[in-house]
Amino acid sequence: MSLKQQATTGSEVNERLAALVSNANAVRAIAAAIEGTLGPKGLDTMLVDRFGEVVITNDGVTILTTMEATHPAARMVINVAKAQEEEVGDGTTTTTVMAGAMVGVGLEQVLKGVPVARVIEGLRQGVRHAVEAMREQALPLGDLEDPRFRAVALVAGRGHEDIAELVITAARLVGKEELLKPAFKLADIVVAEEGAENQVFEGVIISKERMNRQMPERLTDVKVLVVDDALEPEEVEEEALGTEAGFKRYLALQEEFKANVCRLTEMGVGLVLVDRGVADVAEEILTDAGVMVVQRVLRKELRRAAEHTGARMIKRTGLKKEPAELARYLGRAGEVYNDERLEQVWIRAGGGKPMATIVVGAATAEVVGERERIAKDAAAAVQAAVRGGIVPGGGACELAVAREVEKMRGRVRGMAAYGVDCVIEALKRPLAQIVANAGFNPLEKIGDVIAAQVARRKNSLGVDCDTGEIKDMLQAGVLDPALVKIHALKAAGEIAEAILRIDTIIRKREEKQEGGDSGKDGGTG
Question: 349 and 394 share a domain?
Answer without folding.
Answer: no
